[in-house]
Design brief:
alpha/beta, eight-stranded mixed sheet, single chain, 38% helix
Length: 323
């Protein structure tokens, strides 16, 4: 259903974490985490997009700081977590285990609300279907189910390229014509190769394609963010690693296991004009999980920062906090 226009809510004022640290999760990885808000409040974990995207200070601002105990962290290989851009032992199921370790050793809570957008929505669903007893609510934005259809939508000539043909040509440019049958694999070879100059050029092209399509109103600052050296390398290497391995999911797995979400309240906020994670995935999930409330934002795209999408997310977190 399309969410009706109302007076819009915005981000809560800036707050600072009251505790930060690094958590050793094994396999050579340590995660950078922070706790903010009310130490005695309703616990929530924020799962950022990517994979490889990292977290930002604005992520904690989608929650009422008087009501929520907010855990934000950088996933394996990105942000301030170490080692940087590492693909070793970096899979969906490693991340699901990391979330559980954060719950018990950092947040120290029995269960919590799980909030995730884009890839974060994928990870939130994987976690909730694995540990449904640990989830009080799900708040999701921009559903990506990691089906082959969605991977093809992003990286073939039959998907988002139909909306952004000029930008897709730029994405094709680093790959010789004879290697364009499987763009994910062609990029994988460059992103994991020994030629650091070629690797960085491929990383910037891969990440720029995403930066070009994530927002209705692209700006130079958006592209600068996605193509900055550290962001580009982490996003491109890790995201490509996940795409090349189908996210370590069986085809259709998240929909198949959606019955495990029964009894968990949820809200999906989905931009009508989201060309990165199209609304059809959210619609399919709604059919498999009837209890979830699906709010399609008529003037929304992909990013949480777009006014209509942000409004829907803050309304959801407020509702679950009793605001």
């Amino acid at each position: 259903m399309d969410m009706p226009m109302q007076s819009r809510r915005t981000l809560y004022p800036e707050i600072q974490p009251y505790q930060t640290g690094m958590l050793d999760v094994g396999d050579g990885h340590s995660l950078c985490w922070e706790l903010s808000g009310n130490p005695d409040g309703k616990p929530v974990v924020f799962l950022h997009g990517g994979p490889g995207g990292g977290s930002s200070p604005d992520h904690r601002r989608q929650f009422n700081p008087d009501k929520y105990k907010i855990l934000v962290f950088d996933q394996r290989g990105c942000g301030k977590s170490t080692p940087y851009a590492s693909l070793d032992n970096n899979t969906t199921w490693d991340l699901v285990a990391d979330i559980e370790k954060l719950r018990t050793e950092v947040a120290n809570v029995e269960k919590w609300q799980v909030f995730g957008g884009s890839w974060g929505s994928t990870l939130a669903l994987a976690y909730a279907e694995t540990h449904p007893e640990r989830v009080t609510e799900l708040v999701l934005r921009g559903i990506f189910l990691f089906d082959q259809y969605e991977i093809d939508w992003m990286y073939t000539e039959g998907g988002a390229s139909q909306v952004y043909p000029d930008k897709f040509d730029e994405f094709l440019a680093p790959i010789p014509e004879g290697e364009r049958g499987d763009l994910v694999e062609a990029y994988r070879k460059r992103l994991t190769g020994d030629d650091k100059e070629e690797q960085l050029a491929a990383a910037k092209a891969w990440s720029k394609w995403e930066g070009d399509i994530v927002t209705l109103l692209p700006s130079p600052s958006t592209i600068e963010h996605f193509t900055a050296h550290d962001v580009a390398v982490a996003v491109a290497r890790i995201e490509n690693h996940y795409m090349a391995n189908n996210g370590w999911f069986d085809e259709g797995q998240l929909l198949r296991d959606a019955g495990k979400l029964k009894g968990i309240p949820g809200v999906i906020v989905q931009g009508r004009h989201d060309t990165c994670t199209p609304p059809v995935a959210a619609w399919r999930l709604k059919q498999a999980w009837p209890e979830v409330e699906l709010n399609i934002i008529p003037d929304g795209g992909h990013l949480f920062s777009e006014p209509g999408v942000l409004d829907g997310l803050v309304r959801a977190t407020d509702r679950f906090a009793g605001v």
